[in-house]
Specification:
- The structure is a single chain.
- The protein is mainly alpha-helical.
- The chain has eight helices and no strands.
- Helix 7 runs antiparallel to helix 8.
Length: 236
């Protein structure tokens, strides 16, 4: 992804995201995350990295809302909540999205991105990111540490961005990140069930559903991590 291409994508996605396009919000956050890492690998000034970081964070609240909406509806259906109540919750959730969209602020212009790094610089950053991944692997003692799982996922995503500057990610890494994404979605649902007033009546059921989904996703993540670790070249 060159600088011109990234800026063209940002311009187009920004326009759609501000109009409320759900897919554009998702793609813009992903683009900003990739650009943020590219800026760091290219050793751009902090203000340039921070600009992309701010774009990513701006889209995050709306993206999390979009992800958890279907999870809430499915959980309510599984709990045999009457259809009229599910519809009422969905309508309230749509109103919440409208409010979040009204708060969405995205800069019109973003800093230029550097060219792809030379192989030596790329290898140096890849080694650093691999060490970060290894350092953030959550302990397997059965305790729930949401923040540690989140940090591990962030480290793996950064590693993937750097890796894909020159190579293709192994399928195990892609699947691992997908499983961790499912676990994070469940964690977000768990947190929303605990604080959103419109979900108070269904809190216990939603919490149980989120915990089950999170446990399954984490189990899948561990399986994929074992496969990835077995490929010594994958995280060198």
């Amino acid at each position: 992804m060159g600088s011109v291409q990234a800026h063209r994508q940002y311009r187009d996605l920004r326009a759609l995201a501000l109009q409320g396009d759900e897919e554009a919000v998702h793609r813009l956050r992903k683009l900003a995350r990739t650009a943020e890492t590219r800026a760091r690998v290219g050793e751009l000034p902090k203000r340039d990295r921070r600009a992309w970081q701010q774009a990513r964070r701006a889209a995050s609240a709306l993206r999390d809302h979009d992800v958890t909406g279907p999870l809430i509806r499915q959980a309510l259906h599984d709990l045999d909540i009457p259809a009229a109540e599910v519809t009422a919750v969905s309508e309230a959730w749509a109103a919440r999205r409208a409010a979040l969209l009204g708060e969405l602020t995205l800069a019109e212009r973003m800093p230029r991105l550097p060219d792809a790094p030379g192989r030596k610089r790329w290898a140096r950053f890849l080694t650093s990111e691999a060490a970060r991944v290894q350092a953030t692997v959550p302990p397997r003692d059965g305790r729930v540490r949401a923040e540690e799982w989140h940090d591990w996922r962030k480290a793996l995503k950064r590693y993937r961005v750097v890796l894909e500057l020159r190579e293709r990610s192994p399928e195990e890494l892609v699947t691992l990140l997908r499983a961790l994404g499912d676990a994070q979605d469940a964690q977000t649902l768990l947190e929303l069930a605990g604080r959103e007033s419109l979900l108070t009546a269904y809190r216990s059921g939603l919490v149980r559903a989120a915990q089950v989904q999170r446990r399954r996703a984490r189990q899948e993540a561990w399986q994929q991590w074992k496969l990835l670790e077995g490929k010594t070249q994958a995280l060198e």
